[in-house]
UniProtKB/TrEMBL annotation:
Signal sequence residues: none
Domain N-acetylmuramoyl-L-alanine amidase: 3-140
Pfam annotation, one family: Amidase_2
Domain of life: Bacteria
Matches recorded under InterPro entries: Amidase/PGRP_sf, Amidase_domain
Protein name: Lysozyme
Lineage: Bacteria, Pseudomonadati, Bacteroidota, Bacteroidia, Bacteroidales
Length: 155
């Protein structure tokens, strides 16, 4: 049963600064069996991935409407998946691989801004949040509310 879209959740891959991530790698992390080092999920955690160069790659098909159909559900934020879409940028931790850090490149910032503005225009009632606003995590390693104000989105 489809549900009304209520959130766009922003994420980071929690990979070191400057390291790009492939769709295949994310699929492996999320859908491989736990015994093989994955999470054992049926679906990846994100609808779209923003690469270091600013290109946006679709990971899970969706019809772009204001509903989350069962085939569109991703596993980005426990308890929110059936009412959310999730976008992730490659990065989010310092070179040490542990310390949360806003590592978005200029190209990623521009791509994420365009994506979020386009999304907000299409779905003005949907709340845009960081993963850390619904889970005890640093992800996406920047203050989404402050950033939204900077780019002119007041919600």
């Amino acid at each position: 049963m489809k549900q009304e879209l209520k959130y766009l959740v922003l994420h980071c891959t929690a990979t070191p600064e400057g390291r790009d991530v492939s769709a295949a790698e994310i699929r492996r992390w999320h859908t491989s069996p736990v015994s093989a080092g994955g999470r054992g999920w049926k679906q990846v955690g994100y609808t779209d991935l923003v690469h270091l160069n600013g290109s946006v790659e679709r990971l899970v098909a969706n019809n772009e409407d204001a509903w989350v159909d069962p085939w569109e559900i991703t596993n980005g934020a426990k308890g929110y998946n059936s009412i959310s879409r999730h976008i992730v940028y490659a990065g989010g931790v310092a070179a040490d691989g542990k310390t949360p850090k806003d590592t978005r490149t200029a190209a990623q910032k521009a791509a994420l801004e365009k994506y979020v503005k386009d999304f907000h225009t299409a779905h003005p009632k949907v709340k845009i949040i960081g993963h850390n606003q619904v889970a005890a995590k640093a992800c996406p390693s920047f203050d989404v509310s402050a950033w939204l104000r900077e780019i002119g989105i007041n919600q």
